[in-house]
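Narrative of activities, Objective 1.

The group set out to show that a structural description can be obtained from nothing but a protein's sequence at a throughput compatible with the screening campaign. Below is one input-output pair from the validation batch, recorded exactly as produced.
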Amino acid sequence: LLLAQRHPKSQSTTAPYRGLGGRLTMRLTLGLCACLGFFVDLGQSAKYMIGQQANSGAYEVSFDEDKATLDLSKDCFPGKPCPPVVVMVGRQVGTIEVSNCHEGVMYTFVNKGELDGGVVMQHEGGLYGSKGISQFGVGTCFCYKEG
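Output recorded for this entry:
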């Protein structure tokens, strides 16, 4: 707390503190802007590296008309499970059976296929339902295993 005192060489009691008040106001303003900038950054979406490298956050899995399964534990980079975002490229069609998901992961499937018919994603055997994904569409599935 600053108390205004009369400076010996000043006629006004507030003159020596004008610079301090300006600096304090500037610091508070900059601090507030920095905090608001932090919260704006929190509201933005995640950004992933897309490809077939080991550090890709969105992995491209190639399909043809004959491939109808997706094993999330081994169909991506060898020795690593698939990341939460799987981009399906190629000529996939019909129903794709998904197996070996990792519990607690929200998977996002992007259908970037060449065929405009779309695909149906379902858990192996269809026990837990299915999800249709149009060409260039996006579908999400949460992996939950009982027990």
